[in-house]
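Q: Structure tokens for this one, please.
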Amino acid sequence: MIKENQAFNVAMGAAFLMAMSAVGPGFLTQTAAFTSQLGADFGFAILVCILVDIGVQLNIWRIICVSGKKAQQIANELLPGLGYLLTALIVIGGLTFNIGNIGGVGLGFNVLFGISPENGALIGGAIALIIFLVRNALIVMDRTVQILAAVKVLLIIFIVAISSPPVGQAALHTFAPSHIDFYSIVTIVGGTVGGYISFSGGHRLLEGGLKGKESIRYINGGALTGIGVASIIRILLFLAALAVIAEGYKLNPLNPAASIFSSAAGDFGYKFFGLILFAAGMTSTLGSTFTSVSFLDYSKQEDKTNLYHKIRPYLIIFFIVFSTAIFYFIGSPAKVLVMVGAINGLILPIALAILLVAVMKKKIMGEFYKHPLWLTFFGWIIVVFMAYAGIQSMIKGFSSLF
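A: Here is the predicted structure, written as tokens:
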């Protein structure tokens, strides 16, 4: 059992890694785009997202840490080969998202300093590599994410404070929407807890040494802290977007998130957006890389001499260099970030269902662990709802093609 202060630091590192992975460039784009389309009704999608977040994170973090095994190892023990399928889904989704993440860093540099997004992405990729390849990389990653999180929250609070959003209208439509759009729900959930994001915190806890029933209070504390931070940012950004729309501004469909800040505070706000985009892109790049690479670990040894730990630095280098190269030569339009969020939303019910079945197996969880009934029930409601919403969004997507 690790020391109490160390356990707390690991839990907070996991909390902020998950939270900042959830509010990356894709989330900024999705929130702005859907608020522009749906207005105050998009508040309902955010409310659903927060509720899903609670059910997903508390289930996944607890199952992973109490079992002491990463998600892909749990899936393989449940059904041989299932872990490899889960790894493929997570790594492909994480790699695709990382193209947008590193692109967000590049666009942030473009707004701040006027350099091309492609060259900015190269700088961002180099920074990410340095963070991962130094000694005590996990601690450096945790501190970087926490500092950038503080920057992001403070700047969004400033924009909301000067923009006077229609809070009453937002609250009314959040709980009593005039229209429910399943595609927006699947997309925003996919962009904030889908794919790799829901596993980032649980795997970070394991890497930090938190496992077993005795760690449950740190697991819950970290999960709820991460959910709280991510939820605050979601709500603030939604209110900022709604305020701009209420004033009669039209958001630029090519870069809807930038429109929020430039409309609210002119050139000054646009520079703020650049800093937020840099912070969002960098934290999500770190989260996506860490979690996706962790899904390639099938070793059973506790020590650092196994094959995975020997090749892990090369996997990280490949992951970041590949994502950066794809953005540099191809680019990452805003529509791609929205589409990938929808795909990740479809991965979520599959991944969560695997773990909810696994939690009933004593050979995986141990003889004396009993998962809370309310968490199991809540988890299966999310699986059914997200599967249904995902099917509805796919029908809508296909019908729009014909």
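A few notes: The chain is about 80% helix and 0% strand. The mean pLDDT is 84.
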